[in-house]
């Protein structure tokens, strides 16, 4: 197993630079997830680490070795592709064993390794099948088995679950987490799905436009986003962002409410971030008041859209029964501890 | 009620289908079925181009007949058997060379390099030139006294004296095969290139990350995946090569060394004015090709036609 370190990594396609100098350290045995909107460079970054793309400049260290000029096969990485990349004309056994054949091991040893991995991933009874005779989830297991059997220093996953349906995705997610616990291998995982990212990651790397926006444990990115981009990207529904005025002793909210704030604040217009679960209906005055425009029933909770005047609206999570109806007027209290403030440049204060 | 309606709908559809097929079947009957039937009938007569209308039914005498203890007819004619051997040699060697070279060229054209589009177009030039033109062109280039091929080889010191590429019985068939390979390799290359471009790119990336040797990737991944395209190319080319006429006739005429079944049939029919034997030769060529086609299809059954990947 090994740590992975990126130093000033840059990548250009022609004249377009898509990775703008990334520094990152992935600890030995850590599960790091690259997440970000499409086109943010997360897959390219993974391909740079695997060696499928060549870095324009910068260093890539894997297990204490600088590998940016080393061919993919000699970097000690295994990759699981979004499309699984199974060889369509080979059966499962051959798919798993194909990359091993040249490793110099004896036939019996090789056979034992393939069967052990197949056992572990519960595909032992599928060894004779061709990929097209497998379901999406089974293909995914074969792809993972093929990665594991080479006993790499680092596992790279490129959106491995995005071709699976929702139920299977949740199951496989749990299995990947269990696999990581078992193998204690360094894993780097790319996804655009924030639920996948939050549930799997020891640390998340949130990328935007070829730059790292924030690195940290999922809860930290969720609760203490460094800027408006991170705040807006994580969480569903998106964080409520309100234009507020800072004044003597507090913040003036749209609709006339105010929140007390201790400490120094720049005067003028700021952005207040409140997550839907941090707003609660109150029978009192509240800090926000408005009219319900839409109720989205989710079963265990419901999302209530509230128009609060000035053309702004907020979404809050309502738990008690019965739920409100469109047209109801509701007052909300906010948890001041949880409120986030951003300055005019979008940086958190 | 519903079933009856369904039945009448099906009948109407079948009727419409036949209606749409009718023009094509009609044209096929005129241009393919009628000439074939006529040739078959003629082959059973002693018809002659010089004396039309005096044909007499002779049964299978044009094919094989025993007269006074000796066998006569095409199947007893050593020339026909020579033509069959020449044709099979031509077909096997040219198709094998075309498939190997075509695959190599396709692999090169599939790689990324500058002017790739230009190269792809340039490769097609031999295929685009009319056969008679390229045959004549090569006949001149291979001319024993004035040809550029002999001139080059002499200057390079590879041969001591000019070779009669098309007149020498040992060289003529191989010369014709070489020209056919030059002319038809692009067709195979194009078919294989189309197959190569359909291959899943991610499999190759997986192979790269897994460190599998490129030669192993070619033989165990690429080749099996383009197999259906290769089989199609082989069938097309093989059936085409069995009928070869224009190239051979323009380059070497009726010479025994390169005599193919088609050239032989033309010789009987036109030069010897023997419509009966000429038709019989045509029918035999048809039978040979039909047999080989059936063999091909049987051997490759499921690969191309049946099972879908």
Q: Which structural class matches the secondary elements of chain A?
A: alpha+beta
Distance between the termini of chain A: 39 Å
Q: What is the fold named in CATH at topology level of the largest domain in chain B? A: MetI-like fold
Largest sheet of chain B: 2 strands, antiparallel
State the CATH class of the largest domain in chain A. Alpha Beta
What is the name of the CATH architecture of the largest domain in chain A?
3-Layer(aba) Sandwich
The CATH superfamily of the largest domain in chain A appears as: P-loop containing nucleotide triphosphate hydrolases
Range of helix content of chain A: 10-25%
Under the CATH scheme, which class of the largest domain in chain B? Mainly Alpha
Q: Strand fraction band of chain A? A: 25-35%
Fold topology:
The complex is a heterodimer of chains A (349) and B (309).
Chain A: E1 4-13, E2 16-26, E3 31-35, H1 42-50, E4 57-62, E5 65-66, E6 77-80, H2 92-97, H3 107-120, H4 136-149, E7 154-158, H5 166-183, E8 186-191, H6 194-200, E9 203-208, E10 211-216, H7 218-223, H8 228-233, E11 240-247, E12 250-252, E13 258-260, E14 268-274, E15 279-282, E16 288-297, E17 302-307, E18 313-318, E19 329-334, E20 340-342
Parallel strand pairs in A: 3-8, 3-9, 6-7, 7-8
Antiparallel strand pairs in A: 1-2, 1-4, 4-5, 9-10, 11-12, 11-14, 12-13, 14-20, 15-19, 16-17, 16-19, 17-18
Chain B: H1 2-42, E1 65-67, E2 70-72, H2 78-110, H3 116-123, H4 125-128, H5 131-141, H6 148-155, H7 172-197, H8 201-209, H9 214-242, H10 246-252, H11 261-271, H12 275-299
Antiparallel strand pairs in B: 1-2
Helix pairs in contact in B: 1-12, 2-7, 2-9, 5-10, 7-9, 7-10, 11-12
């Amino acid at each position: 197993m090994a740590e992975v370190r990126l130093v000033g990594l840059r990548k250009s396609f022609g004249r377009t630079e898509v990775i703008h100098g990334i520094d990152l350290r992935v600890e030995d045995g850590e599960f790091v997830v690259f997440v970000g909107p499409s086109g943010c460079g997360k897959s390219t970054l993974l391909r740079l680490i695997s060696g499928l793309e060549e870095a324009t400049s910068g260093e890539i260290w894997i297990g204490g070795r600088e590998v940016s000029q080393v061919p993919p096969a000699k970097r000690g990485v295994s990759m699981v592709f979004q499309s699984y990349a199974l060889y369509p004309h080979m059966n499962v056994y051959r798919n798993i064993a194909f990359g091993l054949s040249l490793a110099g091991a004896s036939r019996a040893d090789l056979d034992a390794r393939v069967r052990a991995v197949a056992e572990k991933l519960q595909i032992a009874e599928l060894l004779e099948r061709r990929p097209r005779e497998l379901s999406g989830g089974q293909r995914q297991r074969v792809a993972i088995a093929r990665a594991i059997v080479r006993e790499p220093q680092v596992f790279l996953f490129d959106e491995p679950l995005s071709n699976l349906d929702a139920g299977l995705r949740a199951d496989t997610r749990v299995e990947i987490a269990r696999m990581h616990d078992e193998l204690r291998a360094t894993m780097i995982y790319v996804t655009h799905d924030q639920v996948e990212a939050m549930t799997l990651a020891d640390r998340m790397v949130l990328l935007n436009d070829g730059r790292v926006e924030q690195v940290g444990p999922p809860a930290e990115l969720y609760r203490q986003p460094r800027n408006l981009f991170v705040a807006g990207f994580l969480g569903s529904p998106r964080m409520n962002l309100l234009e507020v005025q800072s004044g003597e002793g507090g913040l003036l909210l749209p609709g006339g409410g105010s929140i007390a704030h201790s400490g120094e604040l720049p005067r003028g217009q700021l952005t207040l971030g409140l997550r839907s679960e941090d707003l609660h209906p109150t029978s009192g005055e509240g800090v926000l008041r408005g009219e319900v425009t839409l109720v989205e029933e989710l079963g265990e909770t419901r999302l209530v859209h509230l128009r609060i005047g000035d053309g702004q609206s907020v979404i809050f999570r309502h738990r008690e029964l019965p739920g409100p109806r469109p047209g109801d007027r509701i007052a909300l209290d906010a948890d001041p501890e949880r409120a986030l403030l951003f300055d005019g440049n979008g940086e958190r204060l | 009620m519903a079933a009856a309606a369904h039945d009448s709908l099906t009948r109407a559809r079948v009727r419409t289908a036949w209606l749409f097929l009718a023009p094509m079947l009609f044209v096929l009957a005129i241009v393919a079925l009628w000439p074939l039937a006529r040739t078959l009938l003629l082959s059973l007569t002693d018809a002659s181009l010089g004396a039309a209308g005096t044909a007499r039914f002779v049964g299978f005498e044009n094919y094989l007949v025993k007269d006074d203890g000796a066998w006569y007819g095409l199947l007893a004619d050593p020339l026909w058997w020579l033509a069959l051997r020449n044709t099979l040699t031509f077909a096997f060697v040219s198709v094998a060379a075309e498939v190997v070279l075509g695959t190599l060229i396709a692999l090169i054209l599939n790689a990324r390099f500058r002017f790739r589009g230009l190269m792809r177009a340039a490769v097609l030039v031999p295929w685009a030139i009319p056969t008679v033109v390229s045959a004549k062109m090569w006949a001149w280039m291979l001319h024993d006294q004035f040809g550029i091929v002999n001139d080059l080889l002499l200057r390079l010191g590879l041969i001591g004296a000019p070779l009669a590429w098309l007149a020498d019985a040992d060289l003529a068939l191989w010369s014709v095969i070489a020209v056919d390979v030059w002319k038809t390799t692009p067709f195979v290359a194009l078919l294989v290139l189309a197959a190569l471009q359909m291959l899943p790119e991610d499999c190759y990336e997986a192979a790269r990350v897994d460190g599998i040797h490129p030669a192993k990737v070619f033989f165990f991944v690429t080749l099996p995946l383009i197999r259906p395209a290769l089989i199609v190319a082989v069938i097309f080319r093989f059936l085409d090569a069995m009928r070869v006429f224009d190239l051979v006739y323009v380059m070497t005429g009726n010479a025994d060394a390169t005599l193919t079944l088609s050239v032989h049939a033309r010789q009987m029919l036109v030069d010897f004015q023997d419509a009966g034997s000429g038709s019989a030769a045509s029918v035999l060529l048809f039978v040979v090709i039909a047999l080989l086609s059936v063999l091909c299809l049987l051997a490759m059954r499921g690969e191309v036609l049946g099972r879908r990947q």
